[in-house]
Write a structure and sequence with these properties.
alpha/beta, 8-stranded parallel β-barrel, 16% strand
C-alpha cells in the first residue's frame, strides 16, 4: 500500500490572524485604511467572521475535526488602544480564548504582530518613529507576562518584510509610502522589534506548557524565485534580478539573523547586538513560485514581469503559480541556512469552490515529507487558514478557509469544506494514504507518491 507517514509527535494545525478573523479592531491603522475605501472588493473587516465572540464554537469544531494545534494572533491595537493604557477587558478576553483552547487540548501557536499597528502608533509615524521599537517592547512585556503560560510556539513577527515593502516601498498597505529609505529604516526597526520580543519571551518563561524548551521565532514569507530562462543577455538579466529579488524578499533578513549584522541592500554593515541566532526555530510561510521574465515594457518594475506563468503550470484564484516542488526547495534552502528546527506556519490556497485545494494540500504535504526524509528537522505544519477571513486588500473575495464562512451570511455559518475532512483524515493517520488520495483527489496520486516505491515508508 502506498503511504507517506510523518514522524511521531509531528504537530498538525491551522492558522489565522487576529485582524482577519476577530472583527472590530477599531483602534488600528488597518481599520482606518478600510474606512477610507481602500479595499479592492469594497468590503471592510467589520466583524470579520466574529471569532472574538464565537471562539468557543470554532474551538469545538477544531476538536471535532481533530485539529490539534491552532495558530492565532493577539492585536496590539486591542490591548493598548491608547499609549500606555491597557484594556483589561481585552486582556481577560484573550485569556478566555487561550483557556478554551487549553481545555480542549489544542496547542497554541501565538503571533505577537501580524501587520497591524495601533492607530496611535501609526499617527506618530509607525515603525519609522525612533520610539516605535520601545513602544512595541513595552507592549510585548505586558502581553508576554500576561500570557506566558499558554503558547507552545511563539511567533514574534509575521512576514515582517511584507508590511515593510507593501507599506513603505510599494504604497499598497498602510501608510502607503513609496520610499526605499523608509523601507530600509523600517526593516532595521523590525529586526530590533523581533530581537526585543524574543528576549522578552525568554526572560518571562522558561519552558513551553509541555515542559519542552521555549520556541520563539519569525514566520517568514518565502517564495521559490527563479529566472524564466530566456536566452542571451535577457537570461543573464533574469538571473541577476532573481538574486536581487531573493535578497530583498527574504535573504537579507535571514543573513542579518545569521550574522547579527545589517548588510546590503538594507544598509552599510551595521551590527545589532545579540541579534545573531535569535531564532529557536525557523518559521516558513510558502504559497507559490515567481518566474522572473525580462520585459522591456515594465520600466517601473525593473524590466521584469513577475506574473508570467510557464506553460502547464496551474494558478490559484490569487493568480499565484502552484508549484509544490518549490516548497521542498525552500525548506531545504532554509535548513541549510539556519540548521534550526522548522515549522511550516502557513501554506494554503484561495479556492472558493474547494476544487484545487485537496490536490494542492496533498502535493505540498508530499514535499514536506520529502524534505523530512532528506534530513530536514521539520516538526510541524499549519494550514492557512482555518476559516475564510478578511484577506487584507483583497477583502472577503478570496477564500482560503478549510471552513467556509460567508461574510454576507448574517449567521456566519461555519461549513467544513471537503478538504477540511481530508485534512482530518491526514491528521488521524499522521500521514497520507493511498485511500485518502483516491477518496479526495485521485489526480494527485503521481504528485504525492511519484514513481519511486522508496517514498512509501514511515519516517
Amino acid at each position: 500500500m502506498k503511504e507517506l507517514r510523518f514522524p511521531q509527535g509531528f504537530i498538525w494545525g491551522t492558522s489565522t490572524a487576529g485582524h482577519q478573523i476577530e472583527g472590530n479592531n477599531i483602534h488600528s491603522d488597518w481599520w482606518e485604511f478600510e474606512e477610507k475605501g481602500k479595499i479592492y472588493d469594497g468590503t471592510k473587516s467589520a466583524k470579520a467572521v466574529d471569532y472574538w465572540n464565537r471562539f468557543e464554537e470554532d474551538h469545538r469544531l477544531m476538536k471535532e475535526l481533530s485539529y490539534p494545534a491552532f495558530r492565532l494572533g493577539i492585536e496590539w491595537a486591542k490591548l493598548e488602544p491608547e499609549k500606555g493604557r491597557y484594556d483589561l477587558s481585552a486582556l481577560n478576553h484573550y485569556r478566555k480564548i487561550f483557556d478554551s483552547l487549553r481545555d480542549k487540548g489544542i496547542k497554541i501557536c501565538l503571533t505577537m504582530y501580524h501587520w497591524v499597528l495601533p492607530l496611535w502608533v501609526a499617527k506618530a509615524g509607525g515603525w519609522e518613529n525612533p520610539e516605535a521599537v520601545n513602544w512595541w517592547t513595552n507592549y510585548c512585556e505586558k502581553a508576554v507576562k500576561e500570557f506566558a503560560q499558554y503558547p507552545d510556539i511563539w511567533v514574534t513577527l509575521n512576514e515582517p518584510l511584507v508590511p515593510a515593502a507593501a507599506g513603505y516601498l510599494g504604497g499598497e498597505f498602510p501608510p502607503e509610502k513609496k520610499s526605499f529609505k523608509s523601507f530600509i529604516g523600517v526593516v532595521a526597526a523590525l529586526l530590533r522589534a523581533h530581537l526585543n520580543c524574543y528576549e522578552v519571551i525568554h526572560a518571562n518563561t522558561s519552558s513551553a506548557p509541555d515542559g519542552t524548551a521555549v520556541k520563539a521565532g519569525v514566520a517568514q514569507a518565502y517564495q521559490w524565485i527563479e529566472p524564466w530562462g530566456s536566452k542571451g543577455l535577457k537570461g543573464l538579466y533574469e538571473r541577476f534580478m532573481t538574486n536581487l529579488f531573493r535578497l530583498g524578499s527574504f535573504e537579507a533578513w535571514d543573513k542579518a539573523i545569521c550574522s547579527g549584522r545589517l548588510k546590503f541592500p538594507l544598509r552599510r554593515s551595521v551590527e545589532i547586538p545579540r541579534l545573531k541566532g535569535s531564532y529557536d526555530y525557523s518559521g516558513i510561510n510558502y504559497y507559490f513560485r515567481f518566474s522572473l521574465r525580462f520585459d522591456a515594457g515594465k520600466r517601473g518594475e525593473g524590466l521584469i514581469d513577475r506574473d508570467s506563468i510557464p506553460e502547464g503550470i496551474e494558478k490559484t484564484q490569487m493568480g499565484w503559480q502552484i508549484y509544490p516542488k518549490g516548497f521542498y526547495l525552500v525548506i531545504k534552502d532554509n535548513w541549510e541556512r539556519f540548521k534550526k528546527p522548522i515549522y511550516i506556519l502557513e501554506n494554503g490556497i484561495a479556492d472558493d469552490k474547494d476544487l484545487q485545494r485537496p490536490k494542492y494540500l496533498l502535493e505540498h504535504l508530499a514535499q514536506v515529507h520529502r524534505a523530512i526524509k532528506d534530513g530536514c528537522d521539520l516538526r510541524g505544519y499549519f494550514q492557512w487558514a482555518f476559516t475564510d477571513n478578511f484577506e487584507w486588500r483583497e477583502g472577503f473575495a478570496k477564500k482560503f478557509g478549510l471552513i467556509e464562512c460567508d461574510y454576507k451570511d448574517p449567521n456566519l455559518t461555519r461549513k467544513p469544506r471537503k478538504s477540511a475532512y481530508m485534512y482530518s483524515e491526514i491528521i488521524r493517520e499522521n500521514g497520507i494514504t493511498e485511500e485518502i488520495v483516491k477518496k479526495y483527489s485521485p489526480e494527485a496520486e503521481e504528485g504525492v507518491f511519484g514513481k519511486s516505491p522508496a517514498l512509501f515508508q514511515r519516517l
